[in-house]
Each structure stands twice: as structure tokens, then as C-alpha cells.
Amino acid sequence: MAGGSGEQELPEMSLVDILTPSNLMPLFASHPELVQTLFPHLPVDLPAPPTEDSLSRIISSPQFRAAVRNFDQALRTGLLGGLVRGLGLPEEAGTSIEAFLRAIQEQARSESADSMDTD
């Protein structure tokens, strides 16, 4: 028991556990617009548009996994304040993985509500 507060401590989240091929591929399949949004940030030698196979190879690659680990570690150490501000997120989103994911979720909700207002 942590501190006797009666609350169960949640396991620490890891982007390495979240951004897996088994989680990402169904997301890309159900939201093909994500692929178009991500395309400019993918390796230049991909077919245009990227195929399901090429996306799968990228997110399964050691390079992608290492980048996710590095990003995960940077979030854990709170070193990403400037980056998250550049993404339009509050600075506290760069202080932990949970704060980052919550800020992304809130931004998505806000953008979704905005797009419904303009439809």
C-alpha cells in the first residue's frame, strides 16, 4: 500500500507499451486520414500513399521502437515543455506520459467539437 491512502497505485504508463503495431495498425485502418496527416513525417522512400505493409514495417522497426523509447524517456524527465507548446499543448503536457496523453485527448476533443460547430 502506497502511503496508506487506500488508493491503488496505477501501473506506470509507457509509450512503448501503447504505440505498438497491434494498437496502431487498427487505428490507421479505421482512420485513414491519420495516414495522410502523418505521411509528411514518414521516411521519404515510402510509396505514396504508404501501404499498410510499409506502415507496419515502419512501426515494427527497431528505429521506430527506439524513437518511441527516447520520446517516452524525455516525457518522463519533463524535458519536452518547448516541444509540447509547439504542438499546441499546455506546457505541463511535457511533464509526464499521462499528462501528455491527457492533453492530446483534450486537444482531440476540442478539435472535434470545433469541427462539429462549423459543420
TrEMBL record:
Task: Give the InterPro entries listed for this entry.
Answer: DEUBAD_dom, Rpn13/ADRM1, RPN13_DEUBAD, RPN13_DEUBAD_sf
Q: Which residues form the DEUBAD domain?
A: 6-114
Task: Quote the Pfam families the UniProt record gives.
Answer: RPN13_C
Any coiled-coil regions, as ranges? none
Entry keyword Nucleus: yes
GO MF entries: endopeptidase activator activity; proteasome binding
One GO cellular component from the entry? nucleus
Q: Which PROSITE patterns match?
A: DEUBAD
Its annotated compartments are: Nucleus
Keyword Nucleus recorded: yes
Name the UniProt key words of this record, in alphabetical order.
Nucleus
Its protein name is DEUBAD domain-containing protein
Please give the organism. Fibroporia radiculosa
